[in-house]
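Hi support team,

I've been running sequence recovery on a batch of backbones for a student project. Most finish fine, but this one hangs at about 90% for roughly twenty minutes before it completes. I'm not sure whether the input is malformed or the queue is just slow. I've pasted the structure tokens below so you can try to reproduce it. Let me know if you need the job ID as well.

Thanks,
M.K.
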């Protein structure tokens, strides 16, 4: 949405030749975590976060796998009873990256 300068809480829906913009109302909510056989699941009543991380979808105890979820468009992992954002990085030895892919 940043390319179009749309507000954070908006969604584009394309139908045939038209595009609609849905504007939602942001709301702070406390999401609990339920531990299932598939790992920790974020839960708000009978709902969980959808894969985009901005909307709710009906709760399924195995919607999310491997301790990773998308919260507000950022990947998070579950550790020590809470969700933590994943900070991406590359470890470099020396002064530059070395291409290790075979040609």
């Amino acid at each position: 949405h940043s390319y179009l300068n749309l507000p954070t809480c908006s969604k584009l829906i394309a139908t045939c030749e038209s595009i609609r913009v849905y504007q939602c109302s942001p709301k702070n909510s406390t999401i609990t975590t339920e531990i299932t056989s598939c790992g920790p699941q974020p839960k708000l009543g009978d709902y969980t976060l959808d894969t985009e991380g901005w909307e709710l979808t009906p709760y399924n105890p195995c919607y999310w796998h491997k301790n990773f979820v998308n919260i507000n468009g950022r990947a998070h992992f579950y550790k020590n009873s809470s969700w933590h954002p994943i900070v991406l990085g590359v470890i470099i030895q020396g002064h530059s990256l070395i291409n290790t892919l075979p040609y």
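--
Follow-up from support: It reproduced on our side and the slowdown came from queue contention, not your input. The mean pLDDT is 84. No action needed from you.
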